[in-house]
Amino acid sequence: MANIKSAKKRIKVIDKKTALNRARKSQIKTAIRRFEEAVVAGNREEAVARFEYAQKRISQVASKGTIHKNAAARKVAKLAQKLNGMNA
């Protein structure tokens, strides 16, 4: 463990940020899972609503720097592909 006061503070700050990032990533995973469940169920109306929510959460998390903006765009594109595949 650290002996210097500033190092102790940094450890506390890092722990808080790590917990926050984990929570944000968990929210994304949950949103994606719920969207995919709606797609599998074949409920287009619910899938569209869950897609919009997932897209919003992914964008918010990317704006905070938890995930890279290109990774966020890739996730959204993959979800959009699944949503569009429901029509075919």
TrEMBL record:
Domain of life from the UniProt record: Bacteria
GO biological process: translation
Keyword rRNA-binding: yes
InterPro entries in the record: Ribosomal_bS20, Ribosomal_bS20_sf
Assigned GO CC terms: cytosol; small ribosomal subunit
GO terms, molecular function: small ribosomal subunit rRNA binding; structural constituent of ribosome
One Pfam assignment: Ribosomal_S20p
Coiled coil: none
Matches recorded under Gene3D superfamilies: Ribosomal protein S20 (1.20.58.110)
Keyword terms of this UniProt record: Ribonucleoprotein, Ribosomal protein, RNA-binding, rRNA-binding
Entry function: Binds directly to 16S ribosomal RNA.
NCBIfam families named among the record's database cross-references: S20
Protein family: Belongs to the bacterial ribosomal protein bS20 family.
Protein name: Small ribosomal subunit protein bS20
